[in-house]
DNA sequence: ATAAAAATCGACACCGTGTAGACTTTTTTC
DNA sequence: GAAAAAAGTCTACACGGTGTCGATTTTTAT
Protein backbone atom coordinates (compact mmCIF):
# COMPACT_ATOMS: atom_id res chain seq x y z
CA UNK A 1 0.00 0.00 0.00
CA UNK A 2 2.60 2.64 0.93
CA UNK A 3 5.18 1.31 -1.46
CA UNK A 4 6.06 2.05 -5.03
CA UNK A 5 9.47 0.65 -4.19
CA UNK A 6 11.41 2.69 -6.76
CA UNK A 7 13.58 0.06 -8.48
CA UNK A 8 17.07 0.12 -7.02
CA UNK A 9 18.83 0.56 -10.30
CA UNK A 10 17.21 3.01 -12.68
CA UNK A 11 15.57 0.38 -14.90
CA UNK A 12 12.16 -1.19 -14.47
CA UNK A 13 11.88 -3.82 -11.81
CA UNK A 14 8.64 -4.47 -13.63
CA UNK A 15 7.86 -8.09 -14.28
CA UNK A 16 6.92 -8.95 -17.81
CA UNK A 17 3.68 -10.22 -16.37
CA UNK A 18 2.74 -6.77 -15.13
CA UNK A 19 2.71 -5.50 -18.66
CA UNK A 20 0.64 -8.45 -19.80
CA UNK A 21 -1.79 -7.93 -16.99
CA UNK A 22 -2.39 -4.37 -18.07
CA UNK A 23 -2.71 -5.49 -21.68
CA UNK A 24 -5.33 -8.03 -20.66
CA UNK A 25 -7.35 -5.49 -18.71
CA UNK A 26 -7.11 -2.94 -21.51
CA UNK A 27 -8.22 -5.50 -24.07
CA UNK A 28 -11.05 -6.53 -21.81
CA UNK A 29 -12.25 -2.96 -21.57
CA UNK A 30 -12.08 -2.53 -25.32
CA UNK A 31 -13.99 -5.74 -25.95
CA UNK A 32 -16.58 -4.80 -23.38
CA UNK A 33 -17.22 -1.69 -25.41
CA UNK A 34 -17.28 -3.51 -28.71
CA UNK A 35 -19.18 -6.72 -27.96
CA UNK A 36 -20.49 -6.55 -24.42
CA UNK A 37 -19.88 -8.90 -21.53
CA UNK A 38 -21.85 -11.94 -22.67
CA UNK A 39 -20.45 -12.06 -26.17
CA UNK A 40 -16.89 -11.51 -25.07
CA UNK A 41 -15.02 -14.79 -24.74
CA UNK A 42 -11.84 -15.67 -22.87
CA UNK A 43 -10.30 -16.54 -26.21
CA UNK A 44 -11.11 -13.05 -27.50
CA UNK A 45 -9.40 -11.41 -24.58
CA UNK A 46 -6.32 -13.62 -24.88
CA UNK A 47 -6.09 -12.97 -28.60
CA UNK A 48 -6.41 -9.23 -28.09
CA UNK A 49 -3.63 -9.35 -25.52
CA UNK A 50 -1.42 -11.32 -27.85
CA UNK A 51 -1.35 -14.61 -25.98
CA UNK A 52 -3.28 -17.88 -26.00
CA UNK A 53 -6.08 -18.89 -23.71
CA UNK A 54 -3.76 -21.15 -21.79
CA UNK A 55 -1.44 -18.29 -20.99
CA UNK A 56 -4.28 -16.06 -19.90
CA UNK A 57 -5.37 -18.59 -17.32
CA UNK A 58 -1.95 -18.11 -15.77
CA UNK A 59 -3.01 -14.60 -14.82
CA UNK A 60 -6.72 -14.91 -14.17
CA UNK A 61 -8.80 -17.93 -13.37
CA UNK A 62 -11.85 -16.95 -15.40
CA UNK A 63 -13.54 -14.23 -17.39
CA UNK A 64 -15.22 -13.06 -14.21
CA UNK A 65 -11.87 -12.62 -12.52
CA UNK A 66 -10.59 -10.54 -15.40
CA UNK A 67 -13.60 -8.26 -15.27
CA UNK A 68 -13.41 -8.05 -11.51
CA UNK A 69 -9.82 -6.87 -11.79
CA UNK A 70 -10.88 -4.31 -14.37
CA UNK A 71 -13.64 -3.03 -12.10
CA UNK A 72 -11.22 -2.91 -9.18
CA UNK A 73 -8.80 -0.84 -11.22
CA UNK A 74 -11.52 1.60 -12.21
CA UNK A 75 -13.12 1.84 -8.81
CA UNK A 76 -9.72 2.61 -7.32
CA UNK A 77 -9.77 5.66 -9.56
CA UNK A 78 -13.13 6.74 -8.20
CA UNK A 79 -11.99 6.46 -4.62
CA UNK A 80 -8.89 8.44 -5.44
CA UNK A 81 -10.95 11.22 -6.94
CA UNK A 82 -13.36 11.29 -4.00
CA UNK A 83 -10.50 11.67 -1.58
CA UNK A 84 -9.10 14.60 -3.53
CA UNK A 85 -12.34 16.56 -3.61
CA UNK A 86 -12.15 19.93 -1.96
CA UNK A 87 -14.28 20.30 1.16
CA UNK A 88 -16.69 23.18 1.18
CA UNK A 89 -19.02 24.57 3.82
CA UNK A 90 -21.81 25.78 1.60
CA UNK A 91 -24.19 22.86 0.96
CA UNK A 92 -25.36 24.32 -2.34
CA UNK A 93 -21.82 24.44 -3.58
CA UNK A 94 -21.14 20.95 -2.26
CA UNK A 95 -24.02 19.58 -4.32
CA UNK A 96 -22.90 21.12 -7.57
CA UNK A 97 -19.30 20.13 -6.94
CA UNK A 98 -20.26 16.54 -6.21
CA UNK A 99 -22.40 16.30 -9.32
CA UNK A 100 -19.79 17.91 -11.52
CA UNK A 101 -17.32 15.32 -10.33
CA UNK A 102 -19.87 12.58 -10.95
CA UNK A 103 -20.40 13.72 -14.51
CA UNK A 104 -16.67 13.54 -15.10
CA UNK A 105 -16.47 10.05 -13.66
CA UNK A 106 -19.29 8.77 -15.83
CA UNK A 107 -17.83 10.42 -18.89
CA UNK A 108 -14.49 8.74 -18.34
CA UNK A 109 -15.52 5.42 -16.91
CA UNK A 110 -19.18 4.99 -17.84
CA UNK A 111 -18.67 1.71 -19.60
CA UNK A 112 -16.93 -0.03 -16.72
CA UNK A 113 -19.28 1.50 -14.18
CA UNK A 114 -22.30 0.22 -16.07
CA UNK A 115 -20.69 -3.19 -16.32
CA UNK A 116 -19.99 -3.21 -12.60
CA UNK A 117 -23.60 -2.40 -11.85
CA UNK A 118 -24.86 -5.06 -14.22
CA UNK A 119 -22.63 -7.73 -12.74
CA UNK A 120 -23.09 -6.76 -9.10
CA UNK A 121 -25.65 -9.49 -8.63
CA UNK A 122 -23.97 -12.34 -10.44
CA UNK A 123 -20.34 -11.69 -9.49
CA UNK A 124 -20.16 -11.24 -5.71
CA UNK A 125 -16.69 -9.63 -5.59
CA UNK A 126 -17.89 -6.97 -8.00
CA UNK A 127 -21.00 -6.53 -5.89
CA UNK A 128 -18.85 -5.81 -2.86
CA UNK A 129 -16.67 -3.38 -4.73
CA UNK A 130 -19.67 -1.47 -5.97
CA UNK A 131 -21.49 -1.54 -2.65
CA UNK A 132 -18.49 -0.03 -1.00
CA UNK A 133 -18.32 2.67 -3.64
CA UNK A 134 -21.99 3.42 -3.16
CA UNK A 135 -21.47 3.66 0.58
CA UNK A 136 -18.90 6.39 0.05
CA UNK A 137 -21.37 8.35 -2.02
CA UNK A 138 -24.16 7.83 0.45
CA UNK A 139 -21.98 9.05 3.27
CA UNK A 140 -21.10 12.15 1.29
CA UNK A 141 -24.73 12.89 0.47
CA UNK A 142 -25.75 12.33 4.07
CA UNK A 143 -23.16 14.85 5.20
CA UNK A 144 -24.48 17.47 2.81
CA UNK A 145 -28.07 16.89 3.87
CA UNK A 146 -27.21 17.21 7.51
CA UNK A 147 -25.25 20.37 6.96
CA UNK A 148 -28.32 21.73 5.20
CA UNK A 149 -30.41 21.05 8.24
CA UNK A 150 -32.04 17.72 7.53
CA UNK A 151 -32.26 15.84 10.84
CA UNK A 152 -30.12 12.75 11.40
CA UNK A 153 -31.78 9.50 12.38
CA UNK A 154 -32.99 6.19 11.12
CA UNK A 155 -36.47 7.33 10.10
CA UNK A 156 -37.38 7.15 6.40
CA UNK A 157 -37.54 10.93 6.06
CA UNK A 158 -34.23 11.67 7.74
CA UNK A 159 -30.80 12.14 6.28
CA UNK A 160 -29.36 8.62 5.91
CA UNK A 161 -32.43 7.05 4.31
CA UNK A 162 -32.90 10.02 2.01
CA UNK A 163 -29.25 9.93 1.03
CA UNK A 164 -29.58 6.30 0.03
CA UNK A 165 -32.59 7.00 -2.18
CA UNK A 166 -30.86 10.01 -3.74
CA UNK A 167 -27.78 7.91 -4.39
CA UNK A 168 -29.83 5.31 -6.27
CA UNK A 169 -31.56 8.06 -8.18
CA UNK A 170 -28.22 9.44 -9.29
CA UNK A 171 -26.78 6.03 -10.09
CA UNK A 172 -29.69 4.97 -12.22
CA UNK A 173 -30.20 8.31 -13.92
CA UNK A 174 -26.53 8.56 -14.86
CA UNK A 175 -26.49 4.90 -15.87
CA UNK A 176 -29.14 5.55 -18.47
CA UNK A 177 -27.85 8.94 -19.53
CA UNK A 178 -24.32 7.68 -20.05
CA UNK A 179 -25.65 5.31 -22.67
CA UNK A 180 -27.07 8.26 -24.56
CA UNK A 181 -24.59 11.11 -24.85
CA UNK A 182 -22.56 13.69 -23.01
CA UNK A 183 -25.42 16.14 -23.25
CA UNK A 184 -27.81 13.67 -21.69
CA UNK A 185 -25.36 13.29 -18.83
CA UNK A 186 -25.27 17.04 -18.41
CA UNK A 187 -29.04 17.30 -18.25
CA UNK A 188 -29.26 14.33 -15.93
CA UNK A 189 -26.91 16.15 -13.63
CA UNK A 190 -29.06 19.27 -13.64
CA UNK A 191 -32.19 17.30 -12.84
CA UNK A 192 -30.52 15.40 -10.01
CA UNK A 193 -29.13 18.63 -8.61
CA UNK A 194 -32.57 20.15 -8.57
CA UNK A 195 -34.17 17.24 -6.76
CA UNK A 196 -31.31 16.93 -4.33
CA UNK A 197 -31.41 20.62 -3.45
CA UNK A 198 -35.17 20.64 -3.14
CA UNK A 199 -35.28 17.66 -0.84
CA UNK A 200 -32.56 19.28 1.27
CA UNK A 201 -34.76 22.33 1.64
CA UNK A 202 -32.30 24.51 -0.23
CA UNK A 203 -34.69 25.75 -2.86
CA UNK A 204 -37.24 28.39 -2.10
CA UNK B 1 -57.47 -10.85 -28.06
CA UNK B 2 -61.27 -10.59 -27.52
CA UNK B 3 -61.78 -14.34 -27.72
CA UNK B 4 -61.82 -16.96 -25.02
CA UNK B 5 -63.86 -19.07 -27.42
CA UNK B 6 -65.77 -20.99 -24.74
CA UNK B 7 -65.31 -24.63 -25.85
CA UNK B 8 -68.35 -25.86 -27.68
CA UNK B 9 -68.71 -29.02 -25.68
CA UNK B 10 -68.08 -28.79 -22.00
CA UNK B 11 -64.49 -30.03 -22.21
CA UNK B 12 -61.34 -27.89 -22.47
CA UNK B 13 -60.46 -26.65 -25.92
CA UNK B 14 -57.13 -26.05 -24.26
CA UNK B 15 -54.19 -27.46 -26.13
CA UNK B 16 -52.00 -29.71 -24.08
CA UNK B 17 -49.18 -27.39 -25.03
CA UNK B 18 -50.82 -24.49 -23.22
CA UNK B 19 -50.54 -26.37 -19.96
CA UNK B 20 -46.94 -27.23 -20.66
CA UNK B 21 -46.16 -23.64 -21.50
CA UNK B 22 -47.46 -22.54 -18.15
CA UNK B 23 -45.56 -25.34 -16.42
CA UNK B 24 -42.37 -24.21 -18.12
CA UNK B 25 -42.83 -20.60 -17.08
CA UNK B 26 -43.71 -21.60 -13.52
CA UNK B 27 -40.67 -23.83 -13.30
CA UNK B 28 -38.51 -21.08 -14.69
CA UNK B 29 -39.74 -18.67 -12.04
CA UNK B 30 -39.07 -21.22 -9.30
CA UNK B 31 -35.58 -21.93 -10.56
CA UNK B 32 -34.86 -18.24 -10.89
CA UNK B 33 -35.62 -17.93 -7.20
CA UNK B 34 -33.57 -20.97 -6.25
CA UNK B 35 -30.48 -20.76 -8.44
CA UNK B 36 -30.57 -17.46 -10.29
CA UNK B 37 -30.46 -16.82 -14.02
CA UNK B 38 -26.87 -17.78 -14.81
CA UNK B 39 -26.89 -21.07 -12.96
CA UNK B 40 -30.25 -22.11 -14.33
CA UNK B 41 -29.88 -24.38 -17.34
CA UNK B 42 -32.31 -25.28 -20.10
CA UNK B 43 -32.05 -28.87 -18.93
CA UNK B 44 -33.11 -27.80 -15.44
CA UNK B 45 -36.19 -26.05 -16.72
CA UNK B 46 -37.17 -28.97 -18.92
CA UNK B 47 -36.72 -31.42 -16.10
CA UNK B 48 -38.76 -29.27 -13.73
CA UNK B 49 -41.53 -29.12 -16.31
CA UNK B 50 -41.46 -32.89 -16.76
CA UNK B 51 -40.10 -33.01 -20.31
CA UNK B 52 -36.74 -33.33 -22.02
CA UNK B 53 -34.64 -30.54 -23.46
CA UNK B 54 -35.64 -31.52 -26.93
CA UNK B 55 -39.31 -31.07 -26.11
CA UNK B 56 -38.72 -27.71 -24.49
CA UNK B 57 -37.14 -26.39 -27.66
CA UNK B 58 -40.47 -27.07 -29.31
CA UNK B 59 -41.96 -24.29 -27.20
CA UNK B 60 -39.11 -21.85 -26.79
CA UNK B 61 -35.96 -21.38 -28.82
CA UNK B 62 -33.65 -20.63 -25.92
CA UNK B 63 -33.38 -19.89 -22.24
CA UNK B 64 -33.65 -16.19 -23.07
CA UNK B 65 -36.95 -16.75 -24.84
CA UNK B 66 -38.34 -18.59 -21.85
CA UNK B 67 -37.38 -15.80 -19.50
CA UNK B 68 -38.70 -13.20 -21.91
CA UNK B 69 -42.04 -14.96 -21.92
CA UNK B 70 -42.01 -15.04 -18.14
CA UNK B 71 -41.26 -11.33 -17.97
CA UNK B 72 -43.99 -10.64 -20.51
CA UNK B 73 -46.50 -12.56 -18.42
CA UNK B 74 -45.55 -10.64 -15.29
CA UNK B 75 -45.40 -7.25 -16.92
CA UNK B 76 -48.85 -7.84 -18.34
CA UNK B 77 -49.99 -8.05 -14.74
CA UNK B 78 -48.38 -4.71 -13.93
CA UNK B 79 -50.10 -3.00 -16.83
CA UNK B 80 -53.39 -4.49 -15.79
CA UNK B 81 -53.03 -3.15 -12.29
CA UNK B 82 -52.02 0.30 -13.53
CA UNK B 83 -55.10 0.50 -15.67
CA UNK B 84 -57.35 -0.38 -12.75
CA UNK B 85 -55.98 2.26 -10.42
CA UNK B 86 -58.53 4.77 -9.24
CA UNK B 87 -57.95 8.32 -10.46
CA UNK B 88 -57.78 10.96 -7.79
CA UNK B 89 -57.53 14.72 -7.93
CA UNK B 90 -55.46 15.31 -4.84
CA UNK B 91 -51.77 14.97 -5.74
CA UNK B 92 -50.80 13.99 -2.21
CA UNK B 93 -53.24 11.14 -2.30
CA UNK B 94 -52.10 10.16 -5.77
CA UNK B 95 -48.54 9.81 -4.54
CA UNK B 96 -49.37 7.56 -1.62
CA UNK B 97 -51.75 5.50 -3.74
CA UNK B 98 -49.14 5.01 -6.44
CA UNK B 99 -46.50 3.97 -3.94
CA UNK B 100 -48.84 1.64 -2.11
CA UNK B 101 -49.55 -0.07 -5.39
CA UNK B 102 -45.83 -0.21 -6.16
CA UNK B 103 -45.09 -1.89 -2.85
CA UNK B 104 -47.69 -4.52 -3.64
CA UNK B 105 -46.22 -5.15 -7.07
CA UNK B 106 -42.72 -5.57 -5.73
CA UNK B 107 -43.94 -7.83 -2.96
CA UNK B 108 -45.68 -10.09 -5.41
CA UNK B 109 -43.37 -9.94 -8.39
CA UNK B 110 -40.07 -8.67 -7.04
CA UNK B 111 -38.07 -11.60 -8.29
CA UNK B 112 -39.19 -11.35 -11.89
CA UNK B 113 -38.98 -7.57 -11.84
CA UNK B 114 -35.39 -7.69 -10.63
CA UNK B 115 -34.60 -10.26 -13.29
CA UNK B 116 -36.15 -8.09 -15.96
CA UNK B 117 -34.04 -5.14 -14.88
CA UNK B 118 -30.89 -7.22 -14.79
CA UNK B 119 -31.47 -8.61 -18.26
CA UNK B 120 -32.69 -5.40 -19.88
CA UNK B 121 -29.26 -4.79 -21.36
CA UNK B 122 -28.41 -8.24 -22.61
CA UNK B 123 -31.83 -9.39 -23.80
CA UNK B 124 -33.28 -6.68 -26.05
CA UNK B 125 -36.90 -7.89 -25.99
CA UNK B 126 -36.86 -7.73 -22.21
CA UNK B 127 -35.31 -4.30 -22.42
CA UNK B 128 -38.22 -3.12 -24.55
CA UNK B 129 -40.79 -4.62 -22.24
CA UNK B 130 -39.25 -2.93 -19.23
CA UNK B 131 -38.74 0.39 -21.00
CA UNK B 132 -42.38 0.45 -21.89
CA UNK B 133 -43.33 -0.30 -18.31
CA UNK B 134 -41.06 2.47 -17.08
CA UNK B 135 -42.66 4.86 -19.54
CA UNK B 136 -46.04 4.18 -18.03
CA UNK B 137 -44.72 5.02 -14.59
CA UNK B 138 -42.97 8.12 -15.82
CA UNK B 139 -46.13 9.35 -17.46
CA UNK B 140 -48.05 8.81 -14.24
CA UNK B 141 -45.46 10.63 -12.17
CA UNK B 142 -45.36 13.48 -14.67
CA UNK B 143 -49.12 13.85 -14.40
CA UNK B 144 -48.96 14.10 -10.63
CA UNK B 145 -46.17 16.65 -10.72
CA UNK B 146 -48.03 18.81 -13.18
CA UNK B 147 -51.20 18.67 -11.16
CA UNK B 148 -49.14 19.80 -8.19
CA UNK B 149 -48.00 22.86 -10.10
CA UNK B 150 -44.63 21.84 -11.48
CA UNK B 151 -44.31 23.44 -14.91
CA UNK B 152 -44.30 21.26 -18.03
CA UNK B 153 -41.43 21.51 -20.47
CA UNK B 154 -38.23 19.90 -21.58
CA UNK B 155 -35.93 21.68 -19.15
CA UNK B 156 -34.10 19.57 -16.56
CA UNK B 157 -36.06 21.05 -13.67
CA UNK B 158 -39.48 20.64 -15.20
CA UNK B 159 -41.99 17.85 -14.84
CA UNK B 160 -40.96 15.25 -17.44
CA UNK B 161 -37.25 15.22 -16.59
CA UNK B 162 -37.95 15.19 -12.89
CA UNK B 163 -40.43 12.39 -13.31
CA UNK B 164 -37.81 10.30 -15.06
CA UNK B 165 -35.30 10.80 -12.27
CA UNK B 166 -37.91 10.02 -9.65
CA UNK B 167 -38.89 6.89 -11.53
CA UNK B 168 -35.29 5.65 -11.51
CA UNK B 169 -35.01 6.50 -7.85
CA UNK B 170 -38.07 4.42 -7.08
CA UNK B 171 -36.97 1.55 -9.32
CA UNK B 172 -33.53 1.29 -7.81
CA UNK B 173 -34.60 1.85 -4.25
CA UNK B 174 -37.29 -0.79 -4.47
CA UNK B 175 -34.94 -3.11 -6.34
CA UNK B 176 -32.57 -3.11 -3.42
CA UNK B 177 -35.21 -3.11 -0.73
CA UNK B 178 -37.06 -6.05 -2.25
CA UNK B 179 -33.94 -8.12 -1.78
CA UNK B 180 -34.03 -7.37 1.92
CA UNK B 181 -37.47 -7.76 3.38
CA UNK B 182 -41.05 -6.55 3.37
CA UNK B 183 -40.21 -4.00 6.03
CA UNK B 184 -37.37 -2.60 3.95
CA UNK B 185 -39.83 -2.20 1.11
CA UNK B 186 -42.18 -0.33 3.41
CA UNK B 187 -39.49 2.07 4.54
CA UNK B 188 -38.24 2.53 1.00
CA UNK B 189 -41.74 3.54 0.07
CA UNK B 190 -41.88 6.13 2.84
CA UNK B 191 -38.56 7.64 1.82
CA UNK B 192 -39.54 7.82 -1.84
CA UNK B 193 -42.86 9.37 -0.92
CA UNK B 194 -41.11 12.05 1.06
CA UNK B 195 -38.71 12.97 -1.72
CA UNK B 196 -41.41 12.84 -4.34
CA UNK B 197 -43.71 15.11 -2.33
CA UNK B 198 -40.92 17.51 -1.48
CA UNK B 199 -39.76 17.89 -5.05
CA UNK B 200 -43.36 18.46 -6.09
CA UNK B 201 -43.55 21.32 -3.62
CA UNK B 202 -46.18 19.55 -1.53
CA UNK B 203 -44.32 19.64 1.75
CA UNK B 204 -44.09 22.81 3.78
C1' DA C 1 -61.37 -44.46 -38.07
C1' DT C 2 -58.12 -42.07 -40.06
C1' DA C 3 -55.41 -38.28 -41.49
C1' DA C 4 -53.18 -34.14 -40.05
C1' DA C 5 -51.12 -31.52 -36.52
C1' DA C 6 -48.94 -31.25 -32.18
C1' DA C 7 -45.73 -32.93 -28.99
C1' DT C 8 -41.82 -35.74 -27.52
C1' DC C 9 -37.55 -38.06 -27.64
C1' DG C 10 -32.55 -39.44 -28.26
C1' DA C 11 -28.53 -38.60 -30.71
C1' DC C 12 -25.35 -35.50 -32.60
C1' DA C 13 -22.30 -31.58 -33.73
C1' DC C 14 -20.62 -27.35 -31.89
C1' DC C 15 -18.51 -24.08 -28.90
C1' DG C 16 -16.66 -22.16 -24.77
C1' DT C 17 -14.54 -23.45 -20.39
C1' DG C 18 -10.98 -24.82 -17.40
C1' DT C 19 -6.98 -28.14 -16.50
C1' DA C 20 -2.61 -30.72 -17.21
C1' DG C 21 1.88 -31.46 -18.66
C1' DA C 22 5.66 -30.28 -21.44
C1' DC C 23 8.39 -26.67 -23.03
C1' DT C 24 10.71 -21.92 -23.24
C1' DT C 25 12.02 -17.61 -21.47
C1' DT C 26 13.35 -14.57 -17.78
C1' DT C 27 15.28 -13.67 -13.37
C1' DT C 28 18.11 -14.82 -9.46
C1' DT C 29 21.97 -16.60 -7.22
C1' DC C 30 26.63 -17.86 -6.59
C1' DG D 1 28.31 -15.90 -16.78
C1' DA D 2 26.59 -20.57 -15.70
C1' DA D 3 23.33 -23.13 -13.21
C1' DA D 4 19.09 -23.29 -10.76
C1' DA D 5 14.68 -21.47 -9.90
C1' DA D 6 10.79 -18.96 -11.08
C1' DA D 7 7.76 -17.06 -14.36
C1' DG D 8 5.52 -17.40 -18.52
C1' DT D 9 3.65 -19.86 -22.60
C1' DC D 10 1.80 -23.43 -25.47
C1' DT D 11 -0.89 -27.51 -27.24
C1' DA D 12 -4.04 -31.02 -26.21
C1' DC D 13 -7.79 -32.80 -23.77
C1' DA D 14 -12.07 -33.60 -21.04
C1' DC D 15 -16.33 -31.60 -19.66
C1' DG D 16 -20.73 -29.40 -19.81
C1' DG D 17 -24.29 -26.65 -21.95
C1' DT D 18 -26.49 -25.38 -26.39
C1' DG D 19 -29.25 -25.87 -30.32
C1' DT D 20 -30.68 -28.93 -34.32
C1' DC D 21 -32.49 -33.04 -36.77
C1' DG D 22 -35.13 -36.94 -38.04
C1' DA D 23 -37.72 -40.53 -36.25
C1' DT D 24 -41.56 -41.61 -33.37
C1' DT D 25 -45.63 -41.18 -30.53
C1' DT D 26 -49.60 -38.78 -28.89
C1' DT D 27 -53.42 -35.64 -29.48
C1' DT D 28 -56.90 -33.43 -32.09
C1' DA D 29 -60.02 -32.74 -35.91
C1' DT D 30 -62.94 -34.65 -39.50
UniProtKB/TrEMBL annotation, chains A, B:
<dbReference type="InterPro" id="IPR050109">
    <property type="entry name" value="HTH-type_TetR-like_transc_reg"/>
</dbReference>
<dbReference type="InterPro" id="IPR036271">
    <property type="entry name" value="Tet_transcr_reg_TetR-rel_C_sf"/>
</dbReference>
<dbReference type="InterPro" id="IPR009057">
    <property type="entry name" value="Homeodomain-like_sf"/>
</dbReference>
<dbReference type="GO" id="GO:0006355">
    <property type="term" value="P:regulation of DNA-templated transcription"/>
</dbReference>
<dbReference type="GO" id="GO:0003677">
    <property type="term" value="F:DNA binding"/>
</dbReference>
<dbReference type="InterPro" id="IPR001647">
    <property type="entry name" value="HTH_TetR"/>
</dbReference>
<keyword id="KW-0238">DNA-binding</keyword>
<protein>
    <submittedName>
        <fullName>TetR/AcrR family transcriptional regulator</fullName>
    </submittedName>
</protein>
<dbReference type="Pfam" id="PF00440">
    <property type="entry name" value="TetR_N"/>
</dbReference>
<dbReference type="InterPro" id="IPR049397">
    <property type="entry name" value="EthR_C"/>
</dbReference>
<feature type="domain" description="HTH tetR-type">
    <location>
        <begin position="18"/>
        <end position="78"/>
    </location>
</feature>
<feature type="DNA-binding region" description="H-T-H motif">
    <location>
        <begin position="41"/>
        <end position="60"/>
    </location>
</feature>
<dbReference type="Pfam" id="PF21313">
    <property type="entry name" value="EthR_C"/>
</dbReference>
